[in-house]
Write a structure and sequence with these properties.
With 97 residues, the protein is an alpha+beta fold. It has 1 helix and 4 strands; from the N terminus they run ββββα. It has one helix at 56-72; strands at residues 9-14, 19-29, 32-38, 44-46. It has a 4-stranded antiparallel sheet, with no helix packed on it. A hairpin with a 4-residue loop joins strand 1 and strand 2. It starts with 8 loop residues before the first strand and ends in a 25-residue tail after the last helix. The model has no long low-confidence stretch (mean pLDDT 83).
Length: 97
């Protein structure tokens, strides 16, 4: 375990930059980093141990997709009727005489 000091540069995930960037230590609790400041955007946040938070939009999209799938494939065992192919229209040219 390295000895951390205020101002040390460590890598952490920045939610504003949305990537792992260099950060400066702002505060320590029991010798472990508690708050850091991004050296790119200067945003202060809690130390995240270089782990990105789970994306929120993907969870919502997945829930909506599952809901649509339940409507398409109901779990009661009944199969939806197959769609019939539309008949082709006849192309007859009218003579303009």
């Amino acid at each position: 375990m390295p000895d951390y000091r205020l101002g040390d540069v460590i890598d952490d995930f920045c939610v504003r930059c949305k990537r792992v960037m260099n950060h400066s230590l702002v505060s320590l609790v029991d010798g472990e980093p508690a708050k850091v400041r991004c050296r790119t955007c200067h945003n202060d946040h809690d130390y995240r141990h270089e782990q990105a938070p789970p994306p929120k939009a993907d969870a919502r999209k997945q829930a909506l997709f599952d809901e649509v799938l339940k409507k398409v494939n109901p779990e009661d065992g009944s199969q939806p009727e197959a769609a019939t192919k539309p008949q082709a229209k006849s192309r007859s040219k009218k003579s303009s005489t």
